[in-house]
Structures are given as C-alpha cells and as structure tokens.
Specification:
Layout: E1 2-7, E2 16-21, E3 29-39, H1 41-47, E4 64-71, E5 83-86, E6 89-91, H2 97-100, E7 112-113, E8 117-118, E9 125-126, E10 133-137, E11 142-143, H3 150-153, H4 159-169, E12 177-181, H5 185-196, E13 200-205, H6 211-217, E14 221-224, H7 228-232, E15 238-243, H8 252-255, E16 258-266, H9 280-285, E17 288-291, H10 297-310, E18 316-320, H11 324-332, E19 339-343
Parallel strand pairs: 12-13, 12-15, 13-14, 15-16, 16-17, 18-19
Antiparallel strand pairs: 1-2, 3-4, 3-10, 3-19, 4-5, 5-11, 6-7, 8-9
Amino acid sequence: MNTRGYAAHSANSSLGLFRFDRREARATDVVIDILYCGVCHSDIHNARNDWGGAKYPMVPGHEIVGRVRQVGAEVTRFKVGDAVGVGCLVDSCQHCRSCARGLEQYCENGFTPTYNGVDPHDGMTTFGGYSECIVVSEKFVVKVPDGLDLPGAAPLLCAGITTWSPLRHWKVGTGSKVAVVGLGGLGHMALKLAKAMGAEVTLFTRSAGKEEDARRLGADRIVLSTDEVQMATVKGAFDLIIDTVPYVHDVNPYVATLAISGTLVLVGYLGPLEPMLNSAPMVMGRKAVAGSVIGGLPETQEMLDFCGQHGITSDIEVIRMEDINASFERMLKSDVKYRFVIDMSTLPAV
C-alpha cells in the first residue's frame, strides 16, 4: 500500500516527504494508523549513519502509537479501533532460546528492527513510524491501556522499556536503593518507574539546578557527580544504578557507590569504556557492570500495563512533522524535556 512518510536520503541530508510501499497485510498482520511517534536519539544516529550500516532512503521512528485500521484473518489479540503500540522490533526468529523466553530483543539469529532492516519473509526494507501507517505481525504489537495519554505513551515503547527491563531483571521493589545517571529521555523515565516500583531513588547529575525537576519526576536525592564530597556521602549506597549517559564516560566513580553485590547497568552507551574499568572494587565487593537493551514483547506489555495502573507517561513536547529537522538539532543540544513526539496528523498531504 502506498504510504506517506518522512525520510533521510543520505547521512547529511535533511528529512523530507517520501512516498513508499508498505506490504499488503498477511493473515497474522495488524494494519495501524499511526497517531504519534516519539523521536529517539537513535533516530539521529541512524539517519546520520553514526553507527554505520544505514540504508537509504530511511524512514526512522520506533516509538509508535496508533489505532488498528485492519486485522488479518488469523489475528486474535486485536480488533479494529484498538489503541496499540509498536516499539523497536517487528520480527525475530521465534524459535531460538531467547525468543522462546520472550526475550526477542536478544534473538540469537538477529531481530528485525522497525526501520533500517530487512523483512526476512519478503526482503522488503522496513520503514518506521515517521509515517501515516505501518503493517506489523500481531506478535510484535502491544496494547495501550485505556486512559493512558497517547502522545505521552509513545516514548514508553523505547525510553520506557529500556529502563523498565533492567529494573525488572534486577528485581527492584519496595526498599531497593536505585540511582540514575543522567536526566534525559531515558533518565526521566528511569526515575518515574523506579519510584513507582517502591525504590528509594537518587539522581546523579553533572549539572546543578536540576533538583526541582528531578524531585518532581521521583528522585528522593540529587547528587552532583562532579562534587567529591557529595559522592563520598553515597559510597556503597546503591543496589542498582541505571546509567543512561549516551557517550563515553568514566563509570569508576559510580562503581564506588554500589553496595555489596550491586550492579551498574549501561543502557545509553555502546562502545569501549574510557578510562579503563578498574576491576578491584568489583572483585572486592562482588559488584558488576552490565548492559541492557530494550525488552521483549511480554516485558513491554507488562511495562505498559504498569504505566496504565500508575498513570505514568513520558514528559513530552509535541511537534509537527515538518519540524523534525529542527528537533534533531535541539536534541543534540539537550534542548527538550524530555522527549519530542510527532503528531502524525501534521504529515503533509502531498
């Protein structure tokens, strides 16, 4: 089906209106009219080929919320009119050990990303949520709970699940002591979710002046990570640290704030650590530095249901589709609190 979207045509070109073909719905597919799509930092990295492997033209977007327009003959979980979401993946092998455990994000044969990928069934390029509609297997669609604000729910499909997954895996609950490094799209969701799970929550930040906002989002304490005196007061304090910083940075000062058997989880940065990670405090305190990426479909639905029960959505600024290039530049300057969301009704008609 012919579809309108916004696409990048090279690593250094602006995104612009683009027409392309979606596949016709298969028996197990759901056709979704996209209402809102969050703007993730990885959309910039992919569009500008910062990580390599970009395929052009590219339609970004993997924080998708919309309503079901059509369902295939074998679809059982959704009906026309349902509010639904699509996150970072639209397929996986479905038979490896990870997929069998509902951990499709760790598919041993490689999952199919929502955009900049190739559909394993027909070889078509996958195009993302900066568009008017999308066709997805029902296994990779989640239900948005009734009453949840739809624009604010869109970033839950990446920023939300990226922070929820480690919080759940490391069994955060009442009495847990959790710290979050960085206050951006991921960090603000980590604060909200950890607080709602019953944890005592601390924000690590390099920037003074964030205390009021951090407390509003759920932080019980704010620690300026550049202040050695403040850092000394939280030595050995935390069961879990969610590190959302998206660039190379020194994690050693944060390791010192872990309790015995505590874990620091990197969710924002992919690449070598610099300076080198000192293993001594890890060995002597059974501490760990780990990593985590998004979540599988069961976990994503669990997260959305939790957010529905607690009224949790992302703090957003809604933008028009034509403002996406300016929004990319603002994101690079951290000039957003805390996520841009595109109103897809503003997609140009021609």
